[in-house]
TrEMBL record:
One of its GO terms (cellular component) is cytosol. This is Aminopyrimidine aminohydrolase. GO terms for biological process: thiamine biosynthetic process. CDD domains: TenA_C_ScTHI20-like (cd19367). Residues 13-219 form the Thiaminase-2/PQQC domain. Belongs to the TenA family. It catalyses: thiamine + H2O = 5-(2-hydroxyethyl)-4-methylthiazole + 4-amino-5-hydroxymethyl-2-methylpyrimidine + H(+); 4-amino-5-aminomethyl-2-methylpyrimidine + H2O = 4-amino-5-hydroxymethyl-2-methylpyrimidine + NH4(+). Its EC number is 3.5.99.2. GO terms for molecular function: thiaminase activity. Pathway: Cofactor biosynthesis; thiamine diphosphate biosynthesis. Keywords: Hydrolase, Thiamine biosynthesis. InterPro entries: Haem_Oase-like_multi-hlx (IPR016084), Thiaminase-2/PQQC (IPR004305), Thiaminase_II (IPR027574), Thiamine_Salvage_TenA (IPR050967). It comes from Nesterenkonia cremea.
Length: 222
């Protein structure tokens, strides 16, 4: 086994990419409340399409499981995304985006690249590979929201308060801690040092894809 918990080890291996993702210019502008609305709308639309594919990834996690404990975790993850999607549709409505707008949108190449990469990491690998590919999404958003939460506390009228508060909520933070715990549990069962380069590659790539997702929003605002 490693000295560090596996998640911390992966994060330290991908430290520069992790920093780019969790402190991205999109998020700095969001925190300041200066993020252009067009950037956030593009993000919301693409995130809806992203959530469809990520639901499939949790369904794949059930398929890749050998124990009920893992199947239950996959079921909880899938349920969390489906309910996150309801919330997402309501948030979109407040930003002037109807369910029809969301359904009609074309997937951006950044959305295709990220989501199909995660699905492929899971299909070609085992449950640990898949959870390592999912980790930047689930755990990164918890870190990001903790970083941005003070901006909302300082200004309840903050334009992005709803998004930030959702991920800063204790409910979401505890789901993210459970995701770390699941990686540690899978790591105890199936991690070997020989797997580190490939797991690092999967984790780094998913982290880079998250940065590209923010960048797609900024680019849409020109
Ligand atoms: C690009 C992108 N990355 C991460 C998330 C956050 N997220 C997506 S699925 C999921 C798991 C359970 O709901 C979480 C936290 C997002 N919405 N969009």
């Amino acid at each position: 086994m490693t000295e560090l918990p596996l998640f911390d080890l992966l994060k330290s291996q991908a430290a520069d990419h992790w920093q780019d993702y969790t402190r991205h210019e999109f998020l700095r502008q969001m925190g300041h409340g200066s993020l252009p609305e067009a950037a956030f709308r593009e993000y919301l639309i693409q995130d809806y399409l992203f959530l469809i594919q990520f639901s499939r990834a949790y369904a794949l996690a059930a398929y890749k499981s050998r124990e009920f404990a893992d199947i239950r975790a996959a079921q909880d993850g899938l349920a969390a995304i489906v309910s996150e999607t309801d919330l997402h549709v309501r948030l979109c409505a407040r930003w002037g985006l109807s369910p029809e707008d969301l359904e009609a949108a074309e997937e951006h190449q950044s959305t295709v690249a990220y989501t199909r990469f995660v699905l492929d990491a899971g299909m070609s690998g085992d449950l640990l590979d898949l959870h390592v590919a999912l980790a930047p999404c689930v755990i990164g958003y918890a870190e990001i929201a903790q970083w941005l939460a003070p901006a909302v506390e300082a200004n309840p009228e903050h334009p992005y308060a709803e998004w930030i508060s959702e991920y800063a909520s204790e409910e979401y933070q505890s789901a993210a801690r459970a995701a770390v715990e699941q990686i540690e549990s899978l790591g105890r069962r199936s991690y070997t040092e020989a797997r580190l380069p490939e797991l690092t590659r999967v984790f780094s790539t998913a982290t880079r894809m998250e940065s590209a997702f923010w960048q797609m929003g900024l680019d849409a605002a020109g």
